[in-house]
Each structure stands twice: as structure tokens, then as C-alpha cells.
Design goal:
Strand order of the largest sheet: 1-2
Number of domains: 2
Shape: elongated
Structural class: mainly alpha
Number of helices: 10
Largest sheet: 2 strands, antiparallel
Distance between the termini: 35 Å
Helix content: 40-55%
Radius of gyration: 22 Å
């Protein structure tokens, strides 16, 4: 599968595969390889959409007990943590765990149907106020997302691509409101890799064109 597709949004069928693989105790790396996605994409998907299905009532030793002054369970302690390798690191959820029925730790389950419904709701919300079809948005993302990830600023992009027919402010608003999130671009990519170039830099960039 093309590398450009590794961080794109997941479909319902891909989420169903994720759920089945969790139930079969597959690792996130294995799931990613099956779907041709990046491991981080699978990890973020599971963590973002898994549901807290059971609240722990078991007085087990806190995972932070060795560095905690209490050295035992203290219900009101803000650092109280019950860690489970399978739940938090291995597949990332409790689906299919043989200890599920008897485990007294917090349980988190992943549902493909619920995850997809949440994704679609977020997608509709992110596109509110945008007069653009899905195909038009994808065409815009195909140009903008790779350039942002390479470190170009919105100013550089709209200057080099006048065919986009949008302003610098509009592009910033699109990115910051999560319009391109489904195409693998987060607001953090903009804040970390680019900056609003100063007026002096703008003049310099125009001369270089």
C-alpha cells in the first residue's frame, strides 16, 4: 500500500478488522501491517475510541507505589494507577481477554461500529460552514497536507498555488478547526513545523519566486 495512505482516515471495514484483531490478541504493530497503516495511527484510533466499560473496585497495589509516600492503595490519591499491559500496551483494549469476566481492573473495550459513528460525527462537525464537497476537500488536502508536513507555511502554499483560490487566513482556520484531520494533518503539525512568517520574510519569499 502506498506510503501516502498510511495515516489517512480509517473506514468502517478497517475498524472491524481492528476489533477482530484485538479480540484475537494481535499487537498494534501487527494490525498496522495488516491494514497498511502506521502503528501510531492504530494506537491513536484504539485509545481515542475505546470505552470505559468497567470501573475497577479492586484494592490492588498502585502502579506508582514505589515512588509514592503511601506505598499502598489510597483512593483519593491523584496518582493512583492500575496498569494492565494487555489493556494499555499490547492490543490497547480488553476485547477478547480471557480474564475479562473476572478481572477487577478498569476495563476498556473497542467497538468498530461506535468508533465509526464517533468519527463520522466529528467529520460532519469539522466540515460545518465549509462550502465544499468531499472530493473537493480531498483535492485540496492532497496539495496542502504534504506541504505542511514538509514544513511549508500556509503563506508559502497559497503563494505557490494560486489555483487553490483561498486566503492565508482561511487556510489557517481550516487547519486549526481540524478540517484536514481525516487526511492525517493535525493542528500540532502546523504549530511545530511551520510559523506565520513575518512581513520581512514575506517580502524575501516573494523575491525568491
Amino acid at each position: 500500500m502506498a506510503k501516502s495512505n498510511m495515516n489517512l482516515h480509517l473506514t468502517l471495514s478497517e475498524r472491524q478488522i481492528i476489533q477482530r484483531r484485538i479480540e484475537n490478541e494481535a499487537t498494534k504493530a501487527s494490525i498496522a501491517a495488516t491494514l497498511g497503516k502506521d502503528k501510531s495511527t492504530i494506537g491513536k484510533e484504539i485509545k481515542a475510541h475505546r470505552k470505559h466499560s468497567h470501573l475497577c473496585s479492586y484494592d490492588s497495589p498502585c502502579a506508582n507505589k514505589d515512588r509514592c509516600k503511601y506505598h499502598h492503595v489510597y483512593k483519593d490519591c491523584p496518582d493512583l494507577v492500575f496498569k494492565c499491559k494487555r489493556r494499555d500496551r499490547f492490543p490497547g483494549a480488553c476485547n477478547g481477554c480471557p480474564k475479562f469476566q473476572h478481572c477487577r481492573f478498569d476495563e476498556f473495550t473497542y467497538s468498530a461500529d461506535l468508533a465509526n459513528k464517533e468519527y463520522m460525527a466529528d467529520l460532519i462537525k469539522s466540515r460545518e460552514g465549509i462550502n465544499m464537497t468531499c472530493s473537493e476537500l480531498k483535492a485540496l488536502a492532497d496539495i496542502i497536507v504534504p506541504l505542511i508536513k514538509k514544513g511549508q507555511s500556509p503563506y508559502q502554499i497559497i503563494t505557490s498555488h494560486p489555483e487553490l483560490n483561498i486566503s492565508e487566513k482561511t487556510l489557517y482556520n481550516y487547519i486549526e478547526s481540524g478540517v484536514f484531520k481525516q487526511f492525517g494533518l493535525l493542528d500540532i503539525d502546523l504549530r511545530v513545523k511551520t510559523r506565520r512568517i513575518s512581513k520581512k520574510d514575506s517580502v524575501k519569499y516573494k523575491k525568491e519566486l
